[in-house]
């Protein structure tokens, strides 16, 4: 992975984050559904089922935003690298050193 382009790495990390997010959301959904099954009242059961559904909707939306953001970043990086690679090389000339001013020496003589 040392020679891999960073846009590929960005996409890979986003994929891992997406997988982790969806796994946790499914665990939470299953927990709410289990609580709904154990609930004694119909209202409580409906509330837990609604929470399970909302959890998946919110997690799916977050995962989609995460993926879009990672794709935009990866595309932007790849575009910047293509532009940098195609740009002409401009050599900078080393800056000339400025001569040391003799003002300090003159001030020292005046002070005496």
Sum this structure up briefly.
This protein is mainly alpha-helical and 112 residues long.
Give an overview in words:
It is built from 3 helices and no strands. It is mainly alpha-helical. It has one domain. The protein is elongated. The model has no long low-confidence stretch (mean pLDDT 86).
- Indicate the structural class: mainly alpha
Overall geometry comes to: elongated
Strand content: under 5%
Total number of distinct structural domains: 1
Topology readout:
Layout: H1 6-38, H2 42-86, H3 103-111
Defining key terms:
single chain, 112 residues, 3 helices, mainly alpha, 78% helix
């Amino acid at each position: 992975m040392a020679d891999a382009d960073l846009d590929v790495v960005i996409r890979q990390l986003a994929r891992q984050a997406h997988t982790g997010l969806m796994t946790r959301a499914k665990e939470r959904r299953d927990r709410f559904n289990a609580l709904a099954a154990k609930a004694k009242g119909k209202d409580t059961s409906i509330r837990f089922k609604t929470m399970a559904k909302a959890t998946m909707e919110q997690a799916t939306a977050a995962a989609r935003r995460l993926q879009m953001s990672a794709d935009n970043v990866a595309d932007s990086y790849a575009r910047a690298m293509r532009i940098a690679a195609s740009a002409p090389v401009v050599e900078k000339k080393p800056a000339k050193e400025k001569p040391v001013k003799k003002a300090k020496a003159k001030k020292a003589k005046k002070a005496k």
